[in-house]
Amino acid sequence: MRSARAAASVVAALSVALVACGDDEPSYCADRDALQQSISGVAEVDVVAEGVNALRDQLRRVEADARALADSAQDEYGSEADDLRSSVSALGTSVEKAVASPSAGTLGAVGTQISEVQEAFRRLSDAVSSSC
Q: Using CA atoms, how far apart are residues 113 and 93, in angstroms rounded to an integer?
C-alpha cells in the first residue's frame, strides 16, 4: 500500500514537472503564431465580393494581433516591437482613409502598409524564433 502511494506521488510529481516544462515558452510565441494567421487571412478577403469593410475587419484583426505581439515581446525585443507597432499604426490610418474614400490610390496605400507590417513582423519573428 505504501509503495502504491509512493508511486502515485512520484507519478503526480513527474506530471506536474512535465506540464511546467511546456509552460517555458514565452507568451510572444503564441502571439507570433496568431499574427501569422491573421496576416494570412488578409489574402483570403475578396474585396470585390465582400467589400472594403471586410478587408477593414480582417486588418483590424491584424492590428490587434500585432499589438499583442509587440506588447508581449517589448521587454526582450524593444526595437523590433516598436517597428511593428509603428507599421501597424500607419496601416490603421491607411485603412480608415480607404474606407472613407475607396480609390486605387487609397487601396494601394493599404497594400503598401500591409507590406510594411509583414516586413516588421518578419524582423520580429526572426528575432524571437530562437525562443519559440
A: 9
